[in-house]
Specification:
CATH superfamily of the largest domain in chain A: Nucleic acid-binding proteins
Number of strands of chain A: 6
CATH topology of the largest domain in chain A: OB fold (Dihydrolipoamide Acetyltransferase, E2P)
CATH class of the largest domain in chain A: Mainly Beta
Largest sheet of chain B: none
Strand order of the largest sheet of chain A: 1-3-4-6-5
Number of helices of chain A: 3
Strand content of chain A: 25-35%
Largest interface: A-B, 37 and 42 residues
Oligomer: heterodimer
Strand content of chain B: under 5%
Structural class of chain B: mainly alpha
CATH architecture of the largest domain in chain A: Beta Barrel
Shape of chain A: extended
Radius of gyration of chain A: 24 Å
Helix content of chain B: over 70%
């Protein structure tokens, strides 16, 4: 490699490394602003500001969904298996909304610890499965539970 | 072999080589994409949660992967062009940019069409979607800067630097779903005992990716022919070629 080419190679490498370091420091500084949502444990730890609008993501707790008859209001609990936050939402829910589903809510945390959401987005996971497989898995699980019950 | 590489880097020789290879790759890519679409739209089973809606994956994922791959090719060629002052390398970057921009645009559009029914929104400003949008602007910025100077060589060098600076965005896009909480789902595990997706669903996906790569290979060669003719328009061999036809 000729000296001029080596010099140009060094300049190019230095430029790429420099930009990478600058970007890394910048992203580190804005770490929290880049979070699309907080988790219920972050909210419980006081990382999110009460009274300010923010997003919170987690799973809809099993058996927690209660609909108010005659209105579009839904109450449920959002959990990350560590902490849980009660949610109130009025409006149309996305198709994938169900108990155990990962969702993101947008709204404010009231002083009484109640989160009032005005937007609910469903988060789908990175798993893909044919429906027959899920049906077979559920059947196997039920059979197992029945066997456990029969034994006791 | 080394002599063949040297010959390949000479514009007149490469022009002929690209012209011969490109149609074969184009037809092959068409066949592979038809096979992949058949596998993805008819043979693959519906998803347990998303039903048939997940099938947009067979165009969204190849577009998204290609948007990253093409940018990497473009930045590598830009580095070679800057360091070794190779004529053909800058032409490769310039030919790759519009193709990469198209892949990025289609990844964004198909992703937003997928997001509406599944997430409940066309667009959110999460880290994955935002960094992919920045990638589109990097491609467009490269294309504009490349043509912004009267002297093509100045444009090549300036835009090559932009391409290299933008390279920092590629790992950010890839790892965005791991580094931050995003609405976009995390990476799917393709192989192994804990795989997130069965072979009946991922084999058509990989066929589609192969088809998209062949498409890119075919059309970058075609675009390179145009780039070479424009860049070499004052040389004897191009004049000869023009007089012949």
């Amino acid at each position: 490699m000729t000296p001029t080419r080596r010099r140009r190679l060094v300049i190019v490498i230095a430029m790429v490394v420099g930009v990478a370091i600058a970007a890394g420091l910048g992203l580190q500084a804005f770490r929290n602003n880049l979070l699309y949502y907080f988790t219920p444990s972050q909210v419980a730890a006081g990382d999110a500001h009460a009274g300010q609008r923010f997003r919170m993501g987690g799973l809809v707790a099993m058996g927690s969904v209660r609909r108010t008859p005659g209105s579009m209001t839904v109450h449920f609990t959002l959990t990350d298996m560590k902490d849980s936050i009660p949610i109130t939402y009025t409006g149309i829910l996305p198709d994938l909304f169900r108990e155990g589903q990962g969702i993101v809510v947008y709204g404010t945390l009231e002083k009484n610890g109640q989160f009032v959401a005005d937007q609910v987005l469903a988060k789908h996971d990175s798993k893909y499965m044919p429906p027959e497989v899920t049906a077979a898995m559920q059947k196997a699980m039920q059979a197992q539970q029945a066997a456990v019950k029969g034994a006791s | 072999m080394f002599i063949w590489f040297h010959k390949l880097a000479s514009p007149p020789y490469f022009y002929k080589f690209a012209g011969r290879l490109s149609p074969w790759l184009a037809w092959l890519s068409l066949l592979v994409i038809i096979a992949g679409l058949y596998g993805g739209l008819w043979l693959a089973p519906p998803d347990y949660q998303q039903g048939d809606g997940f099938r947009i994956m067979y165009v969204h994922v190849p577009n998204a992967w290609m948007s990253l791959l093409v940018y990497t090719v473009m930045a590598m060629a830009a580095a070679i062009g800057l360091i070794w002052r190779m004529k053909l390398a800058h032409a490769v970057s310039a030919a790759a940019a519009p193709l990469g921009a198209s892949f990025t645009f289609l990844a964004l559009v198909t992703g937003s069409l997928w997001g509406k029914p599944m997430w409940g929104t066309y667009w959110v400003w999460d880290a994955r979607l935002t960094s992919e949008l920045i990638l589109l602007f990097l491609y467009l910025g490269y294309m504009v800067l490349n043509r912004a100077f009267d002297d093509r060589r100045t444009g090549d060098r300036a835009s090559a630097i932009l391409a290299l600076v933008g390279m920092v965005n590629i790992p950010i896009i890839h790892y965005s779903v791991k580094w931050w909480n995003t609405l976009h789902q995390g990476p799917t595990v393709f192989f192994g005992p804990r795989a997130d997706i069965p072979p009946s669903m991922y084999i058509p996906l990989f066929i589609m990716v192969a088809g998209f790569m062949l498409y890119f290979a075919a059309f970058i060669l075609k675009r390179l022919q145009v780039e070479i003719l424009q860049r070499e328009r004052n040389t004897a061999w191009v004049r000869e070629l023009a007089e012949k036809s």
